[in-house]
Fold each of these.
Amino acid sequence: MAHILIVEDEKSISDLIAMNLTLVGHTSDQAFTGPEALDRIRSASYALILLDVMLPEIDGFTLMGHIPENTPVIFITAMSGLSDRVKGLNMGADDYIVKPFETLELLARIEAALRRTARSSPQFSLDGTVVDLSSRVVTVAGNPVELTLREFELLEVLIKNKNIALSREKLLKLAWDYDYCGETRTVDVHIQKLRKKLNWERRIKTVFKMGYRLEAGS
């Protein structure tokens, strides 16, 4: 349940990756050029970035300098030389996979990178509210706050997709694995409870005619 950026100039490969990410429950954005990727990186927050090296206008190695340090990166490239792999890893990439690749291997490497990131940064803090994603302990101004299981599951999805507008249907699917069947009022009810309990009335924004977004900066 992560939001992933795919930076790949070959549309067929990018679309295949996006389709498979959707099948395993993730969401994704796609960028096909260096400048387009740079705009995405600057305007949104991603749990992981899949990054080709050979891109139009701005290459992947250059883009690495613009990616937040806490965002895991997996290089996906036809450049199979040892020096290229070493360069990519030394620049801070979490992994390096060479084309052509097996989709199952790519998905396994993505999940491994996401697990490493979750272990290294299990806490999320915003406006005096601290959420420990591993222990599921929530405090506001140092005081513990009790959340139901469903409230915490919804909160976890909002945090992992912070700054991303998610529809009510998508929140139902990601948080509770519910297929949309016409009733999304339960999302609205739980959002209102989270806003009140966490003092996030101004942080959990309503997106008109769509759903909600947790605004948490870059």
Amino acid sequence: MAIRPPLQKVLSPCILEVERKFHSLAARHLTQNGGIPPFQSLRSLPLQTIRDTYYDKSNLLSSSGAWIRRRNGIWEAKIRKGGDFTNSRFEELNRVSDIAACVENITGIQAHEKEDFGLGIMADFVTTRETWIADEEFRIVRDNMDFGHEVGEVELQRVLDGEASEEEKMGEMERMDERIGEFMRRYGWAFRKGRPVGKLTAYFEMMGQKRS
């Protein structure tokens, strides 16, 4: 009887996302020729309505830099790989098995997605999102939440091979962050000055005010 070789584990592609938040856009309608220099190209994407439900367990995930959410019914995880609340670097997980493994690694909980991975809801809100693709690759988004907060982001995303090392991931995200910084300085006319406040931070501040 022939001996079959052991099955090799198929590694998920590594999805990296780097983003820089901004307070708001300088104009209500973003246009290609709204300032000098103009964008090389700019196209608008359809308006989105996004329902985000975030989950945690005694703040174990968020304090470890992991955010588990169900976006329009689809599970996602974002693992912080550096930066801060304004300039953020994440690795994204989209496979349920990878998300379950992440939750178990941080909390010790073994649970199925149908059990919400053993987690509880910590935030739930709806976002109306406007999106533009500038210079063919930079994603500019303006988010308006149903609790009255607005914030924007400039994002870049890269997909690496699943076998990419942590050093390779960190190096690529460093380059992505530098490119976003250069982009925002070049087109500074598009972004209004001011301290941006992330949607979760604003949500928790709002909930705290309601309880007081």
